[in-house]
Amino acid sequence: MGKFRCPRWCNCAPCFRAKFVPDHDTALQPLPKPKEAEESDGLPFIDAKEDSDILIIRKIDPCIAINGISHHTSQYELMNRKFEPQLIVRRGQSFRLDITLSRPYNEDKDGVSFIFSVDDAEKPNYGQGTLVAVPLLKRADRHLSWNVVVENVVDNTLTVLVTTAPDAVVAKWRVEVDTKIIDDGAYSYSWDTGIYLLFNPWCKQDQVFMKSEEWRDEAVLNDVGIIWRGTANRMKPVIWKYDQFEKDILECSLYLIHVVGKVKSGYRADPVRVSRALAAAVNSADDLGAVMGNWTEDHSGGTPPTKWLGSKEILQKYYKKKKPVKYGQCWVFSGVLATICRAVGIPARTVTNYSSAHDTQSSLTVDYFMDEKGSIMEELNADSIWNFHVWNEVWMQRPDLGRDYGGWQAVDATPQELSEDMYRVGPTSVFAVKQGEVLRPYDGAFLYAEVNADKVFWRYAGPTQPLKLLRKDVYAIGKQISTKSPGRFDREDITSSYKYPEKSSEERTTMLKALRQSENLFSRYYLNEDFNDIHFNFELRDDIKIGQPFDVALVMKNRNKVADYKIKVILRVEVVTYQGKVGDNVKKEDYNITVKADSTYEVKLKVTYQEYAKRVVDQCAFIISCLATVEDTKFEYYAQDDFRVRKPDIKIVLRDKPVENKEVTADIYVENPLPVPYKKGEFTVEGPGIEKNIKIKVKNDVPSGEKAKGQFKFTPPRTGRHTIAAKFVSKEIDD
């Protein structure tokens, strides 16, 4: 057998097998097997004299309960398996191992060293941080990034504390323990149990360290949350179960980072690179990522995005087949990405931006072209405004940008635009977005436009005619930016973290700062000062439950004391997808009216349920527009708003007080506000102790004003807070 040299930092005998040579890719050399080691539970190898009293390892206890509590990893399914549980710990923090030996450990004659290697690294090596050799020491050596120290020795049991580096590679690791007698034989023990090493928001030296305890609990440990959908006028909270601790979720997350995201071994220690790779790996637009997007009404061959209750089913299905799961939209991509980030230890939350711009030209404007009838010319429009868009924020420091740019970083897995040849956005410093620093990596300009672009309307009269500026709205984009409050099922408004208040001088100054950095040549124009005589006020009568009629009104006030004005008005109602694509026309009316001097006139468009019912798309959203032309002066006023009719809430009532491991009966019902009966209604329920979603069919038709009812049973598996999530669909209503 060849001789072994210790690493350069080691001046003692115990670390005797870890070779350290200029070629960092040199692998470790195995040691041959001893007869004495056949009783141990690992994979032992030896090189010793026949009468050698070499120290042999019988087994290693991962101390699951103790380590789980101190590392906040007790909830992981991997840690709670009855057979072959795995150890999950966080980097930069010590964890305990109890090692059973063939005889008592003698520090004067026994040399012990620990060899840690990343399990899926093709060639573990020191240079990439995927191979680490550490001697067993009496006390920690501050010059070493990893330490293993003796905690206690009782008879044949040796207790050690292993402290990993706060910038260690996040992955599944393997451990080998080498023992030898000074100037005698050598023995190596390979431990079957894997060690999953995660990011550590509790460690001050970790790049993802988070000082706020309530946000750590929310953004890392909470396994259920709220994702906000709807519109700015009618926000809709939707329960989303992250389930980051459930079966296969952690393994799938690491697979997406390493295999799909192609993050090289050493870079898996960097949360910036990891989160950027995950933003691409969660969607399947340019790789075999986890979720396939679909923004059509045809969801054949998959699950409609509105029917998912959480991430668990999606990731478990993906990990089993390694094929994209059908289908997702922005909130699904965001929910799944939040699950993965929380699973690997990166604090993450979902963020909803209402009236969210999709700027395809990096012009920081969203441009709409109208014909002479006030209709939007979709064939000319490349930009769009989504009723809402959901992305994620992850918490980390940004040493690549500077101290001021740490904190929440926006990442977006929804495939919208290419970033370095892949569909992804971020991580983008939220602080940089607010300051208008759009050139900071990554994708600052796109994020800035989503929350603060100017909305501009143009009259298009043909290819040979000049464009006429109808209106500019500098307040239309980026409303009610929302996330779940820590520890409560409430909405927290975080608009101020992305932008200065509308109408403030800081907001306009920041916009001009951003424009100066843009390389786009698209010219920017500003509206003429407001027309002085006629004041227009476009009103939408909101808070309408589905099944009820609604109306839209334009109020015109003539401030001139002597002159009358003739005005032509067009009011339109069209359905719209949540991503801003205009669909079928619901109703349109033309009005020719005269507004008398010093008076007010109102035109009103009434829309009945029968008129909008058959044209409603998934989110029950409409776009309401108004084009008014003052014939005497040719002044034109254009306004647009979005609107969503409210669907009824599902109610769940527990018949009994829930007790751990005791079956509970629950009633579930939902009102029918429609003027027609529900037909073929069905509830889908997910909750604690429910392995597979429960389907509850409503036997009879449900008349208008009555309730669709059902009942289900579940058994809470443990004490603590749990969430029941439910969906209801019928021929007449869904989501």
From TrEMBL:
Its EC number is 2.3.2.13. It catalyses: L-glutaminyl-[protein] + L-lysyl-[protein] = [protein]-L-lysyl-N(6)-5-L-glutamyl-[protein] + NH4(+). Its cofactor is Ca(2+). Binds 1 Ca(2+) ion per subunit. It holds the Pfam family Transglut_N. Residues 322-415 form the Transglutaminase-like domain. Keywords: Acyltransferase, Calcium, Metal-binding, Transferase. It comes from the Eukaryota. Ca(2+) binds at residues 452, 454, 502, 507. It is an enzyme of class 2 (transferase). Gene3D superfamilies: Immunoglobulins, Transglutaminase-like. The active site is at 330, 389, 412. GO terms for molecular function: metal ion binding; protein-glutamine gamma-glutamyltransferase activity. Belongs to the transglutaminase superfamily. Transglutaminase family. This is protein-glutamine gamma-glutamyltransferase. The lineage of its organism: Eukaryota, Metazoa, Ecdysozoa, Arthropoda, Hexapoda.
